[in-house]
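Note to self: the last two entries modelled the partners one at a time, which told us nothing about the interface. This time every component goes in together.
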Amino acid sequence: MRVLVLLGAPGAGKGTQAQLLETPLGLPRVATGDLFRAAARDGTELGRQAKVFMDRGELVPDSVTIGMLLERLAQPDASVGVILDGFPRTRAQAQALDATLVERGAGVDSALLVDVPADELFARLSGRWLCSATGHPYHEKAAPPKVAGICDIDGSPLIQRDDDKPEVVKARLEKQLGALGDVVDHYRAAGKLKVVDGTQPIAGVTASLLAEIRALPGWAAE
Ligand SMILES: [Zn+2]
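The predicted structure of the combined assembly is written out below.
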């Protein structure tokens, strides 16, 4: 079983890349957010447990997340391997994942970091504005309105959600980068870390990731 871990800060484009890698690699992307939703929908015991924490706005404990991940890995399409997206998020999760995979005679083949500098992440995450009438989305740099502060489509004023305000984004990003750094260190120490320049256009990032993956021992194009 082949196990790839895709790492990246919020705004780095990691989830997009995980989806783009599925077809060329022939491996399913497994995102923990999707696992939570699927388990909650299917009413599994683990899903019920996860829902209790999510409904309270708390983090789902590692034991529950790992249990769901194991159930997912046991499904037929994952027998060849998986691309993990959004897990592990902490050093403790990375260690738990290693221990779980060892029991199955497997291990993480490589952890690939979609690397984007903190100031660029901040710019990507903090410039979001929404139309106050219907929520048409804008971004100060990526998709600015023709007239600052006004929706192009209906002329309504643009507003910024509390979550998108610069000081809130900065505090959240710093916390997330700290945890990501721990996970990156874990895989670097294990000799499994590959770093790809995440400031390239999307297709360039995908090409760089595929080149790194195909250079892994036993992963040459088949
Ligand atoms: Zn609008």
